[in-house]
Design a protein that fits this description.
Layout lengths: L6 H4 L14 H4 L7 H9 L5 E4 L4 H14 L6 E9 L4 H20 L6 E7 L3 H10 L8 E6 L4 H6 L8 E9 L3 E3 L16 E3 L8 E4 L3 H4 E11 L19 H8 L5 H15 L5 H12 L1 H15 L3 H8 L3
Parallel strand pairs: 6-7
Antiparallel strand pairs: 1-2, 2-9, 3-4, 3-5, 4-8, 5-9, 7-8
Helix pairs in contact: 10-11
Length: about 325
Amino acid sequence: MEFAQQQEQWDHGASIGEDSSTVSDCESGVSATTTGEEQRQRRQNSDSFLVWLGEGDSVYDLLKTRFLHGLGALSSKAEILAIQRNACSDAVSQARLRSFLVYAEAVSKLRGGDSNVKYAWYGSSGENDVRGILSNGFSHVHGNSICLSPDDSPLQSVKSCAVGRDGVRHLILCRVILGRTEIVQADTKQCYPSCADYDSGVDSFSAPTKYMIWSSRMNTHVWPAYVLSFKVSSLKVEIEGYGRPTSPSVPFPTLISMLSKVSPQLDIALICKFYKARKEKKISRHELIEKVRQIAGDKLLFSIIKYYRAKKKPTSFQQARSKNGN
């Protein structure tokens, strides 16, 4: 079953319905059905407002499966250490959730019945960042906008995660009100929608890898639902054979292989994912090239292309043999 279809189950009852200001008992932190184990964990984590989920829990298993699937070639290198749920246990957190639901309903009315609520990953800068976001929202640590990754494509957010003690990183899985989206360039200085027709930004309509939420909407359109703590080993990513689509100068499989020798593993995994999307015709060839340029940088790509051309250029001896028909 698709991840998006599991939203109500994942939220333990929190949903956007006709009475959008109503928060489920479980998310409000006053559930009559909260287990003794959850209450104990909540007390232990009262400073961080988080409830630990254990292996075997349906939400834990769904999150783990979705996250690892989205990592692609990196999945075998990743180790999930903990998955925790926002307990929403204080009055301010409950007010933020109610605000989120109210805004989702408002956007739905504004956009013809579709608030376009998605799940998305945010790469945190560490434990203090996670604690600050849960306590104060996103706007206290961000500038013009906040960038998140779609739930099925966590690599961008994994890449932006700060590496803490013992190599641990923390992702926050958020519910995001996208509303009507517009294309936004990666280097944009934009801090609000280009006009009243739009609510958020994306880097692609067909296969987005970035959601952009503007500064004025960070605390109303983004709700931090879960925290996933994990490690990714520093081993090289194994490059899979992807077939025959090529660039004008270097076949993409060759380019990926050469980049893997000098680029971070997360960059390579991301490029592989975009190449796979191109093979499946989810993005255009031009979009693929632009994505690779953004990730690897023109300077490195130029050096690789130059090296490849020099390596493929026939020597004078080979040219002489060819002329002689040998």
